[in-house]
Amino acid sequence: MADTTALNARLAPGPQGKKPRPILAPRNIMLYGALIFAAVYYLLPLYVMVVTSLKGMPEIRLGNIFSPPVEITFEPWVKAWSTACTGLNCDGLSRGFWNSVRITIPSTIVSIAIASINGYALANWRFKGADLFFTILIVGAFIPYQVMIYPIVIVLRELGLYGSLTGLIIVHTIFGMPILTLLFRNYFASLPEELFKAARIDGAGFWMIYFKIMLPMALPIFVVAMILQITGIWNDFLFGVVFTRPEYYPMTVQLNNIVNSVQGVKEYNVNMAATILTGAVPLIVYFISGRLFVRGIAAGAVKG
């Protein structure tokens, strides 16, 4: 009888799995504490920018930058967009915004299209000199931009493109292709090779395999490339101020002219509103496609 009782006790159902961790365990406190600290560190400047842009200058002069606005006003945003002076022009960021759009869209499309074909060819179609070509692209990805500025100025001047939007688009396209080619090459190399071989056996050629098989499977890496290019081109200041004229300045150059203006009263609310407007486009793009961005990185975007 005693043996039966002991056996039933051993076979009786009980709690299964690992013992649950308490919410206030030291490990959780350290983990969430570090995350909260990092979030506050990065969000605090954004909070200051937003609340300052919604205040009037009399309230800003009181000196408490962390206090919320007593009376919300959107006049600084309107002025930053349409009437703030950037040198001789007083049309705000609106002209620079449309210049940035005209620069970013074609530069992003052309560079991604060429880089995706390059990466596909380097991953699946081994041609003579492919390794040398790939090495040159990798070296080009790590050459400092400042080293290339003067030679590019000379080349664009000889082509009659210096100071134009077309010349700046070409510059962004060329400088974006090396790193994008690396991303696409690594992504296509991570796809099952059997798909490529089966398509070759069925008689599919270079372009049919690219458009019918590789392209539909490459949406995550296209999103990664798009976010990288839009962020890099939209936030660029150096190329914009070197390779264009004042009427073609992108939004970042217009922002610099507004913030660093030495004439009149320093309007911090207008400066903050202009800064937020300038950075809004890359943020919106990332928030819309951020999940695909993470998928693309995890699916081979940074694999060797």
Q: Would you tell me which CATH topology of the largest domain applies? A: MetI-like fold
Count of discrete domains:
2
Radius of gyration: 27 Å
Q: How would you spell out the order of helices and strands?
A: HHHHHHHHHHHHHH
What's the end-to-end separation, in Å?
66 Å
Tell me the fraction of residues in β-strands, as a range: under 5%
Oligomerization category of the chains in this entry: single chain
Number of strands: 0
Shape assignment = flat
Stretches with pLDDT under 50, minimum 5 residues:
300-304
Quick structural overview:
Helix content is 72%, strand content 0%. With 304 residues, it is mainly alpha-helical.
What does the model show?
The chain is mainly alpha-helical. The protein folds into two domains: 23-73, no CATH class; 94-301, MetI-like fold. It is built from 14 helices and no strands. It has helices at 2-11, 26-53, 57-60, 75-82, 94-124, 130-141, 145-159, 165-190, 193-201, 206-217, 219-234, 238-243, 251-259, 268-301. The N and C termini lie far apart (66 Å).
Which key phrases capture this entry?
14 helices; 304 residues; mainly alpha; 2 domains; MetI-like fold
How is the secondary structure organized here?
Layout (H helix, E strand, L loop, with lengths): L1 H10 L14 H28 L3 H4 L14 H8 L11 H31 L5 H12 L3 H15 L5 H26 L2 H9 L4 H12 L1 H16 L3 H6 L7 H9 L8 H34 L3
Helix pairs in contact: 2-14, 4-14, 5-8, 5-11, 5-13, 6-8, 8-11, 8-14, 11-14, 13-14
